[in-house]
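Dear colleagues,

As part of the handover before I leave the project, I'm documenting each prediction I ran so the next person doesn't have to rerun anything. This entry is a single chain, and its sequence is reproduced below.
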Amino acid sequence: MAEDKPSAPGAPASPFNRTVQHDAKRLAILSQAARLFNYKGSRATTLKDIAENLGLTKTSLYYYVKTKEELIYQCYMAALDYHHGILDTVEERHAAPADRLSAYFVLQFDNWLAALEGRGPHIAALLEIASLRGSHRKDVEAQYIAMFKRLRQYLRDGMTDGSFRTLEPTAATRALLGSVDWAFSWLHKVPASEIGATAQKAVDLFMHGLYAGEGDYLPPARDIGDSPLATVQGFDRQQQNKLKQDAFYKTGTWLFNKQGFDGTSLDEIADQLQVSKGAFYYHIKNKEDLLFNCYNRSLDLVENIHKQAGDIEGTGLEKVERTCRRIFYFQNTSEGPLIRYNSITALPMERRREILKRTDATNECFGNFIREGIRDGSVRDIDPTLAQNLIAGAVNASMELSLWRKLDDIDAAALDYFDIFFNGLLPRT
């Protein structure tokens, strides 16, 4: 049998070429895996699930991928190739930094729509990098860092030529990526006919911010470090048990955020707290139960922060700003951390729905503050639901800022991080 030959430059690929066939099947597998990983999570998705969704046998799937970790790795590398491809496209088409950044986000939304309509592949959300090990994790992180630096350079170029305001580019880039990375969790609720308009609204928010006034919005000095939960005091057994349980939740949250659910063992949690495994099981049923309680603890904190912000006298924008700064504090100090949503797919569906229902309710508080701000004139006339979703994505990713820059002054770092939402990228008049 004749060997497959590469197609001539510019010639259409032959469907009879075995290499082309193999690549097409591999891409179909990665697309289906990405779709399932995004909505079920990599932990809850089996190779059998993917094979059945493609009409394949599990044995046939093994021809293309041997293990689930290998599949996660390939999905993430394909996603990063996709992101770099978008950046290549916008750099070929546009020279101005603002045009490049705008085009990047519009293409992200366009490709989401293409996947939704079956015109393009599904792209994995990069939420479970911590589940990878060894060289796989290093490869993915290296490509992610490279993508991050390319986007950050757009901001630096814009500040150099005067098209962007002076801002802290590392913090702003992390906030932008956090917003967009989380878009898969809410974009499916947007009608397909409105995706394009939603992309333009998102770009408008990034460029102009929330603030309706002239000049920059300069938040006042605030005490953001007081705990929003009452401190448990006393010596009775019930109160002491509550303190011990909270210590397990804080340590579990820290390790789940850092290593993922599968990468965290109960032994590690017990070692961190210098307790026996027996003491752990006295307070916590199992690792899944611990994760569930970590989410509930974080939501208790966030709900209290929103309530306190809502009770203050001030504009709607001030309430958004106060909430963002306080959540950032608890995400990045020993008072927290707050758990990231990267591990939520480790929960069974019933518990996951319970957590997501509470999360949606807390995110709506942002939307309500924004609506209040539109009424009192502190916030521009924008889409409150879109704004709350973008801010919530950035909030979820805020704990990662410490990986990119020092957080010597927590409040200053918070203001740097959320500045793009208050004031936008473009110079203000």
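The first helix runs from residue 18 to 40. The chain has a mean pLDDT of 86.

All the best with the project,
I.
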